[in-house]
Q: What sequence folds into this?
């Protein structure tokens, strides 16, 4: 199937993306300068003023990452927070900002905040820097529909992947089932360590002392997929993208968070005891996984190809990946 | 003096008489009446004890969930060396073809030292697509194979078009009473259990997969119970109980096991398999949550889920049949709101306790391999002890 209008996760009705990019040169406690090249990216799965929650599924391969709100995602299988990706040192700030934001829009129950932490310390002195809650809130308020910015923006600003500049990217696919049109959208944040997998000898030198890589996927759809189905789709996406992971690196973490806007549920503990749920037939989980996988691969490609070099800590400045680099790394799967 | 009156006598004088002498007498009494005592066994409620506050369904059994059927094959062969006390129990989850029409299911292992096959399919798809079989540890392969034979016979397309079934076969270790290594279970025994499966009252105690099981220092086995939620929905639990030691046993919260000193405890249990069913529309993730509460019910009869105990829970909902092949792309479902699950949890916790206790109170004393004897829990003692505790309470006792 083809990409939808903006080829963006925001092609999903109601979904918004916001970025906060932080570029600072701060005096360092050790005398020199702390170069801050970091940021935050948030995906709002629905207009946050609405008092709803959505079915969701989360899956993570590898333990060296953070995904707050995991207990509720795993046990209750719902998401009502924005999905936020930021550097590991600012997870708490972002978490708290989600709560503040929720209170400010009359959502005392905008809980638990879902914040995914990634390590951008190869380019950024992130440990020397905490974001101001006010700037996070401002970014949240400026979340927009329409094509989301990509590359070295938001959390993508400080990321690097395979020795090239990493970033954020997004993509979407449309899928017809029984004459109805649905959208599968994906946002990716690429931060994989250089290594020898699909990239084999292709990855660049550098970052050897920063082996804690990550690949973060946030996917949304208006298809009526329910949690146990989303888990199957999430595992398909991660298995497919696992080809990108560097072989013999146990430190990389691959995270996939999926949500469906199709069965919005109440946050109130009043109301009907039994509610209606729509579920796609399991026989469509393969085509749905296929579209999600394509969108995920393209989101990864765009995160890399749109990323402009950022000069960061210790003069490091990973190069921007060129189209033929991507071609060599990804092979057939990376063609769209 | 019959055994029943004899035991009543011992209870009254329990604290006054030397335990050693009593023990001798009881062992003698057991020998006099033969290997399987025909003392009438009772369900917990028939003893006057009640667990919890919700009402049970009509049969107080897993079969109160409409369409659920339970069947047993009990295998008793020989005496002494090489004696076999084992069997197979089967749960048919609905009255149709479960392989063609699946049910939502959820799984939880409180402690994983056990086996429940087919779980990858259950957790991977959220669906239960085969009957559930309960048996002794070493019989799992035979029963699994027989289950596939049954499924092949009843489903011509199975094995073609990439359609494979993954039978759910769960086990506990029955080696105290049975020469379990000899694996004297056949395909035919499994088919017989399926033929035997029926709705209505469930045979409990030393029967089917529970034939050789011991629990809480007594004879264990199959037990079941149910609860009604909102006058409408049923939650049923069935267990194959083979876990726990006597000093841990609690009935309705009271430490009854600590006060039963005779007959002697010969064996600590190893595992327990717990099945929960409901006709309420619960989605797979909600069934997993229900399965966790079944684990709480196990805790409330005193089990601690020790390292060697495979305490595994499977829960399914009969509310919605998911066809293997469907002509419609989308399914309109219903689900109980997360905020209304609490009464279902209460039902699961209560029914689990009572199912385990029914397994104990319904199981006959059984003499098995090498003369090993697992004693049925002495019902008169249970009654007396509970009477004492209820009497000590603040008028909350429900013993009638």
A:
């Amino acid at each position: 199937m083809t990409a939808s209008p903006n080829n963006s996760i925001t092609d999903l009705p109601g979904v918004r993306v916001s970025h906060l990019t932080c570029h600072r040169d701060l005096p360092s406690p050790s005398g020199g300068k702390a170069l801050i090249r970091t940021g935050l990216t948030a995906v709002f799965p629905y207009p946050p003023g609405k008092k709803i929650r959505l079915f969701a599924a989360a899956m993570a391969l590898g333990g060296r990452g953070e995904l707050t709100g995991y207990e509720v995602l795993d046990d209750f299988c719902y998401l009502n927070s924005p999905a936020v990706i930021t550097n590991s040192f600012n997870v708490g700030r972002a978490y708290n900002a989600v709560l503040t934001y929720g209170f400010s829009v009359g959502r005392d129950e905008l809980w638990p905040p879902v914040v995914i932490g990634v390590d951008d310390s190869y380019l950024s002195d992130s440990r020397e820097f905490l974001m101001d809650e006010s700037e996070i809130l401002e970014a949240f308020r400026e979340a927009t529909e329409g094509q989301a910015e990509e590359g070295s923006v938001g959390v993508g600003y400080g990321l690097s992947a395979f020795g090239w500049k990493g970033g954020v990217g997004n993509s979407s696919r449309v899928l017809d089932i029984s004459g109805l049109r649905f959208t599968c959208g994906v946002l990716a944040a690429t931060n994989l360590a250089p290594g020898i997998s699909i990239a084999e000898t292709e990855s660049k030198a550098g970052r050897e002392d920063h082996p804690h890589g990550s690949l973060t996927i946030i996917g949304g759809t208006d298809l009526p997929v329910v949690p146990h189905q989303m888990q199957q789709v999430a595992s398909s996406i991660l298995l497919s993208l696992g080809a990108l992971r560097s072989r013999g690196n146990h430190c990389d973490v691959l995270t996939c968070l999926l949500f469906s806007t199709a069965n919005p549920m109440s946050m109130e503990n009043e109301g009907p005891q039994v509610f209606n749920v729509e579920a796609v037939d399991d026989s469509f989980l393969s085509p749905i996984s296929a579209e999600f996988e394509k969108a995920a691969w393209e989101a990864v490609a765009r995160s890399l190809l749109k990323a402009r070099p950022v000069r960061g800590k210790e003069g490091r400045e990973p190069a921007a990946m060129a189209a033929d680099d991507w071609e060599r790394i990804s092979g057939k799967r990376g063609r769209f | 003096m019959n055994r029943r009156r004899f035991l009543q006598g011992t209870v009254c004088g329990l604290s006054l008489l030397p335990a050693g002498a009593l023990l001798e007498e009881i062992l003698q009494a057991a020998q006099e009446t033969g290997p399987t005592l025909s003392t009438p066994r009772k369900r917990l409620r028939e003893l006057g004890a009640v667990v919890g506050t919700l009402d049970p369904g009509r049969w107080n059994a897993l079969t109160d969930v409409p369409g659920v059927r339970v069947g047993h094959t009990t295998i008793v062969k020989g005496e002494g060396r090489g004696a076999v006390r084992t069997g197979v129990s089967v749960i048919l989850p609905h009255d149709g073809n479960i392989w063609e029409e699946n049910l939502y299911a959820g799984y939880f292992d409180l402690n994983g030292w056990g086996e429940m096959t087919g779980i990858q399919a259950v957790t991977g798809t959220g669906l239960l697509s085969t009957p559930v079989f309960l048996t002794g540890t070493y019989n799992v392969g035979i029963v699994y194979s027989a289950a596939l034979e049954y499924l092949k016979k009843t489903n011509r397309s199975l094995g073609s078009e990439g359609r494979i079934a993954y039978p759910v076969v769960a086990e506990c270790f029955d080696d105290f009473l049975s020469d379990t290594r000899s694996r004297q279970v056949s395909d035919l025994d499994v088919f017989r259990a399926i033929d035997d499966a029926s709705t209505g009252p469930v045979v409990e105690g030393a029967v089917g997969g529970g034939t050789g099981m011991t629990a809480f220092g007594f004879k264990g086995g199959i037990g079941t119970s149910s609860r009604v939620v909102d006058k409408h929905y049923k939650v049923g639990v069935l267990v194959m109980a083979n876990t726990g030691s006597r000093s841990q046993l609690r009935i309705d919260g009271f430490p009854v096991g600590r006060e039963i000193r005779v007959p002697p405890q010969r064996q600590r249990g190893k595992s327990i398999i717990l099945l929960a069913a409901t006709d309420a529309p619960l989605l797979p993730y909600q069934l997993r949550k229900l399965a966790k509460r079944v684990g709480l019910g196990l805790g409330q009869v005193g089990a601690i889920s020790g390292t060697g105990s495979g305490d595994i829970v499977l829960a399914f909902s009969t509310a919605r049949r998911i066809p293997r092949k469907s002509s419609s792309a989308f399914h309109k479902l219903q689900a109980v709101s997360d905020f209304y699950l609490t009464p279902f949890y209460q039902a699961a916790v209560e029914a689990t306790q009572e199912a385990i206790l029914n397994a104990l109170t319904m199981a006959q004393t059984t003499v098995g391999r090498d003369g090993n004897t697992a004693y049925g829990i002495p019902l008169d003692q249970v009654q007396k002890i509970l009477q004492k505790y209820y009497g000590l309470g603040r008028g909350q006792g429900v013993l009638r």
About this structure: Chain A touches chain B through 30 residues (CB under 8 Å).
